[in-house]
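Might I ask for a little of your time on a matter of protein folding? Here, with my thanks, is the record as I have it:
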Amino acid sequence: MHSLKELYKVGIGPSSSHTLGPQKIAKRIRKEYPEATRFEVALHGSLALTGKGHLTDKVMRDTFAPRPCTFTFNADRLPYHPNGMIVNVYQDDKLLNSIEAYSIGGGAILFKGEFERGLKEYYPHNSMEEILTFCEHNALSLYDYVKRYEEDDIEEYLMMILETMLACVDAGLKAEGVIQGRLKMKKVANDMYHQALNIHTPMRRSRLMIASYAYAVAEENADGHRIVTAPTCGASGVVPAVLYHAYHNLHMSKQDLVEALAIGGLFGNCVKYNATISGADGGCQAEIGTACAMASAMVAWIHELNNNLIAYAAEMGLEHNFGLTCDPVGGYVQIPCIERNAYAALCAMDAGLLAGELGYLRKNKISFDQAVRVLKATGKDLNDAYKETSLGGLAKEYHVEND
């Protein structure tokens, strides 16, 4: 598996696959062709169908500026992934190159010819069963395992990721107004947080606060602000909500939360390596489902559960998101995406609790790896209308013009 640095990335919203990835593609092409005078971009598949709402054309046009860039939108998909594009690079009227590139989820990109080569492998094990067995034989915690195989500066990197997440929650809790786009969605994280402060029932207050933290990040993401892919932009509010709660309400240290990030990232990596974290490829189960699994593992670790029970919590977080569709209304990462982040954060809190209680009563019969395989199979079976195309589900039921 790849480094956690390939999973947790700082970028701008609203979409890691439709904004962050295309921006990286444009930056790379611009750097490789400094003599270019203009660009023509043909977006395909999901990039074409929801690119406008996800700001794909805007971010690429801004990246190529001041050189002009024109776009065409084609519903057919290219061979390797639903998020594909062809960029024609020109110097005046001379075509310098026609480049086929893909944004494969979580901000990761690949150009044609790179799929066989891939990224550097850091971990010798590619399944959670292999990892758990290795840890048991060597008396390692899951965090010890990450430290053994990652780069030497992984703690510093994860501390930067944590600080960025906490700052994003802070920014979202202060933000007011309306999120960009035709939906005219009012930002509610600030109001939700202050409602929570006035609630005297401890459990209700705590859960509403966690929801407000998730809303804060998801609203920041939808407005195109700075977030962390965890594992994607569209699911970026789940993990920070849990960590912000642990830091501000449970008073855990930042070093402890760095360890939680590493452990959650390990489960996210397993999904990314063995299935997909791309909504265009596997539906929202691949994004929110993975984020919920990661956050569930973190909550289990916070509850001081052992490696196997942490895996149980992650499996639970993933399993109960099977079949979740990616159907953004109007192509915006707003409905149902923002609300879904808060719901998944609360589910993660429950999964961490249940794993601790159930795990000591009976052995879980479904492994995390089995859940990942089911996610992958379910993603393949999902109709394309439910995979970030805005052709089905809520996107078909509710039209922006209704407002």
